[in-house]
Write a structure and sequence with these properties.
The protein is an alpha+beta fold. It has a single domain, classed as Alpha-D-Glucose-1,6-Bisphosphate, Chain A, domain 4 (2-Layer Sandwich). Helix content is about 25%, strand content about 35%. Strands 1-2-3-4-5-6 form a six-stranded antiparallel beta sheet. A hairpin with a 1-residue loop joins strand 2 and strand 3. The longest helix is centred in the C-terminal third of the chain and has 22 residues. The chain starts with 7 loop residues before the first helix and ends in a 6-residue tail after the last helix.
Length: about 130
Amino acid sequence: MLADPAQHPAIDGSGSVRHQRPGTPARLSLGATFAMDMRIGMPYRITNEVVEFEENRKIGWRHWAHNVWRYELEPVESGTRVRETFDYTDGRGQLFLRLTGTPRKNQESIEKTLGRLAELCESSPAASA
């Protein structure tokens, strides 16, 4: 589900991811680029590159500012533990992000995203994260 950009609007807890752009691959892999229509206040487009990928274990992508959205999956007895992080340690504009409260806002969105991801996976037994 995480490697399918068409699913990203359904799992996004921030409400900012709208649609995948034409030309986006159906399935992401290391080095793949994908573009999304977004909206935070006003509409915009963002292009991401997959910079981390281990099948069924990890996927991470970054955009022009080099901030990385990362999902790490770990098999556990009850299913799969998913950890999402927003890593801006090597990104551009760190001061701006801190001044605007982005790390705190992203943490709230991450919690919502993980809840939505769990609901979608539980309602679709064939779905895999």
